[in-house]
Amino acid sequence: MAQDFIPVYKQTTVEVPIGTGQLSIGDIATLRGKKIVYIETFHDSDVTITPLGRTPVTDAALKASFLTLAKAGTDRPIENRPLTSLIKADNSGVIQPLDYIVVDWVNSFLQCPDTAAVSANAGNYYLLVVQYEDDIIGRKC
Hints:
This protein is mostly beta strands.
């Protein structure tokens, strides 16, 4: 008899300081090799402080910011995704899923070409909540 596996979904937060140019997200050990379900972001009107005690970027900065994800094992990135498309509250409670892709975080980055927004947010952080599929821990018959 065939058995179906039950995936376990978890979330982790990623905090990246706002700045000019392409801001590398860097290696995230927790997410290495994991299939990403979705990424959600927040601005300072939604969350006043990040889990690490930092100030999130403003709504104006998010509106001027983009995310580029590098898909692991391929040279076809998901380019220039507006961060506003990752705000569940602003999109009728819906976030576009990422189709369980494995992300190369080292080659993924955030960018805000609006230098005025970057200056106004000096010291603030992008806050990303990443839902991923973790190891399968059970089976159902």
